[in-house]
Design goal:
The chain has 154 residues and is mainly alpha-helical. It has 2 domains: 52 residues, no CATH class; 62 residues, no CATH class. Helix content is 67%, strand content 0%. It has 7 helices and no strands. The radius of gyration is 46 Å and the shape is elongated. It starts with a helix and ends in a 7-residue tail after the last helix. The model has no long low-confidence stretch (mean pLDDT 81).
Length: 154
């Protein structure tokens, strides 16, 4: 198996200059490329220098980081729609006028809806209602005819 110079550079960037950290199936090919290519040697020298520089860095001490994180206030929780409606309907301030008018306004909503819908309906426009109304007129006429006196005066 052979390896390209680009892949060798990717191995160095990902795993560093130590061949023990490289993937086992690519290690032999990478070492062969290192023996044959002067560019690979330059890449390896740069990776060794970078590894040494990174090894000299010490990790910062984060002893107080945990307490700082715990002392931060939590973000405000969003109320659900039901909680918002209940807060609007039943305000926490007991001396507010909203304590009285908001429940009354909410109770008027079905009443107003009924009035609007009731005014939109036309009870005498559909065929069934027309038929009922004409039947009532015929019955009324028959009732009036039956009350009339048809006896002849002799």
């Amino acid at each position: 198996m052979t390896i390209s110079l680009q892949r060798f550079e990717q191995l160095l960037d990902a795993y560093g200059a130590s061949p023990q950290r490289w993937p086992a199936h690519e290690r032999v090919a990478a070492l062969q490329l290192l023996e044959q290519s002067p560019q690979a040697v330059q890449l390896m020298q740069h990776a060794l220098w970078l590894d040494q520089q990174l090894d000299q860095l010490s990790a910062p001490d984060f002893l107080q980081l945990g307490s700082q994180i715990l002392q931060q206030p939590l973000p405000a929780r969003r109320k659900s729609l039901i909680e918002q409606l209940l807060a609007w309907l039943l305000p926490l301030q007991q001396h507010s006028a909203a304590v009285f008018w908001r429940p009354a306004a909410l109770a008027c909503v079905p009443l107003m809806l009924g009035l609007v819908l009731g005014n939109q309906l036309d009870f005498y426009s559909d065929a069934y209602a027309d038929e009922l109304y004409s039947d009532e007129l015929e019955e009324t006429e028959l009732d009036l005819i039956s009350l009339a006196d048809y006896s002849e005066i002799l």
